[in-house]
Specification:
Oligomer: single chain
Largest sheet: 5 strands, parallel
Mean pLDDT: 90
Number of strands: 15
Strand order of the largest sheet: 2-1-3-4-5
Distance between the termini: 26 Å
Helix content: 25-40%
Low-confidence stretches: none
């Protein structure tokens, strides 16, 4: 298996610089990669219409008519799995990176060790997105990609898993929690939330990127903030 990596940067020098590092990293990691380079956000999107299987996107923030943040927001409307790493000469965009679930920011000139570290994290997340949750009901076996689960909540003896579709099963939230990984946080007795889908947290509620609002139990604010920080 090989991994698809895109580099989107309007600087030919920076693109070549990053490409060389990615090739060195792939050799160190003993994996095969295919690298495509794009000089603009528009060029990437034109190609993306035909080929939507990129695993990692190394994305310059400051570009022409469409900047990297706008491109990332466009991608996130339909793609939750691509790992986005922003490349920038400034630190002013970090809050917007949070909104599009960017994996990391790397300040230019990018240091080899920092890029390698982020690429290993991205690879780990790509592999996790391949995991499937297998759940048996009375009539069928459900196979749900774990990354698709936005949150799960409980009513009585039944848990509803909110993914691309909603699935309601007779089980405990505790049992479901044991089947998930560190991307998920138990926010009180009645809800588990996918941290990578969170766009904002207040002391009263969690807001997901799709607009879903989940009430946050009293005293849970600090814990979920720590979990978000640890994920990054």
């Amino acid at each position: 298996m090989y991994y698809q990596i895109a580099i989107c940067d309007d600087s030919k020098i920076d693109t070549q610089y990053i490409t060389n590092f990615v090739k060195c990293w792939a050799q160190e990691a003993n994996i095969s990669v295919h690298i495509d380079a794009f000089p603009s956000a528009e060029a990437f999107l034109f190609h993306y219409e035909e080929k939507k299987d990129y695993d990692i996107l190394l994305l310059d923030v400051e570009m022409g008519a469409m900047n990297g943040v706008t491109l990332a927001k466009t991608l996130r409307k339909e793609n939750d799995t691509i790992q986005i790493v922003f490349l920038t000469g400034y630190s002013d965009y970090i809050s917007e990176g949070y909104e599009v679930a960017a994996l990391h920011y790397l300040l230019k000139p990018v240091q080899k060790e920092k890029l390698f570290s982020v690429l290993y994290r991205a690879l780990d997340k790509v592999k996790k997105n391949e995991k499937i949750l297998n759940l048996e009901t009375r009539s069928e076996i459900l196979r749900i990609p774990i990354y698709e689960i936005r949150y799960a909540d409980v009513t009585g003896n039944y848990v509803t898993i909110h993914a691309k579709k909603d699935y309601t099963l007779k089980m405990t939230l505790g049992k479901l929690e044991k089947l998930l990984d560190e991307r998920f946080y138990r926010a009180g007795r009645s809800v588990i939330v996918n941290i990578t889908n969170i766009s904002r947290v207040t002391k009263a509620e969690i807001k997901l990127r799709d607009g879903t609002v989940i009430a946050l139990p009293r005293g849970a604010y600090e814990g979920i903030n720590r979990a978000i920080i640890n994920m990054r």
